[in-house]
Write a structure and sequence with these properties.
9% helix; six-stranded mixed β-sheet; mainly beta; 1 helix; 10 strands
Length: 151
């Protein structure tokens, strides 16, 4: 691989990190906390300017969910293709845990991503498949998500 290409890949990884804003979550190397017995996948149809939002205890509530692990992965398509691509092809870009307000925010380059939310111990893992775009038509909307107990 030419040296210029390797430098470009490294630069992309550096940009994709949790922001340092106090209302956002703190970066963590912790991996997905598999719990529950189902996997929930939500497709965000509209392109977003940024991967940001809030995890709440219920969608009707405004109470933030503390300690939720929010991770960003490339290759979100592995979630919607039954046996086409293998999860091993995915790479974790970054992750963080929410604070008491439930906020998360990631500065990532334009592209397609999986936001994986997990809490462990009987709570189902949820994934939000989203596209980040710098288009003037991309939404500045914040995502709002919750996790559900496994049955």
């Amino acid at each position: 691989m030419p040296p210029g290409k390797a430098a470009l890949i490294v630069a992309s990884m550096v940009v994709a990190a949790c922001t340092a804003n106090a209302k956002d979550c703190a970066p963590t190397p912790q991996q997905t906390l598999w719990g529950g017995n189902e996997r929930i996948v939500i497709v965000q149809r509209r392109a977003l300017k940024r991967l940001q939002g809030r995890v709440v205890t219920t969608l009707d509530s405004n109470e933030g969910w503390n300690g939720v692990l929010v991770e960003v992965f490339d290759h979100p398509e592995v979630n919607v293709q039954p046996y086409g691509l293998r999860r091993e092809t995915q790479k974790r870009i970054t992750g963080c845990k929410t604070d008491a307000t439930g906020q998360f925010s990631f500065e990532v380059p334009p592209g397609h991503y999986e936001l994986r939310l997990s809490y462990g111990s009987g709570i189902n893992v949820s994934s939000i498949l989203a596209r980040v775009s710098r288009s003037p038509f991309a939404s500045r909307k914040q995502l709002r998500a919750t996790l559900h107990a496994g049955m």
